[in-house]
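Appendix B, example 12.
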Amino acid sequence: MNKPAPPRPPAKRPPKPGPRPGQRHKPAPVAVQPLDEGELQQLQKLLDSLPDTLEPLDVVMIDGYLCGVLLQPQPIAAERWLPLLTDVDGRPPPARFDAATLRALVLRRHAELEAAITERDWFDPWIYQLDEQASPSETVLPWVAGFATAADAFTALMDRHEDAILEPLATLYRHLDPDDLEDADALLAEIETLAPPESLDEAVEDLVRSVLLIADVSRPQEAPARPAAAPGRPRPPGRPGPAGAGAPRAPARKAAPRRPG
């Protein structure tokens, strides 16, 4: 497996929105020390040391995979998802392999992503700049492939919420080969409406926003109870909040064809 290029600078973070209507402020989780560049390289070297008979994920795929694991409606035990890092079929690595170091490094990233998803906070995906000729979709493809690996291995997310997460899922899966999406007519139809990202920053931002939108469905946050109506006064009908309040930007869609005159 080829050694990845140095990580690209993090995409510019949009300002963090305030709490969405109906959400509570939660105490900030304990900070997790992100992996530095040396530790990322250490992780990739561990994966590169595996024999050719195994099919491990690389560091970019691992990042997408962890998001796919964390978005499941119920927590997945590490003993279930860790084996797929060193082989997509779950075959065990050689006895000499330093599984303890790999586990420690990956669990730190898992904890970092868990905190970001729980708080609906921005995070920097592990995306590597391939080359100047690579399109944004080609660059983020390994990350999305890792996410898809988790969604295929742990099916509760799709079994329970496929219809509700169609739009953010299409935003992710538009980077995959359509031939790899079997029995997914609704998903393919949604992908057809989306324009490709114009820049790598846009593609990376869409990864994060899609993860947080899926989390709103599969891992909803607690909402405070509504106050009771004043005695003798009927409860007014529900009113929408301010337009766009707390709502992530939707991916660009293709322009509709003009009708012939």
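The radius of gyration is 20 Å. Residues 24 and 223 are 6 Å apart (CA to CA).
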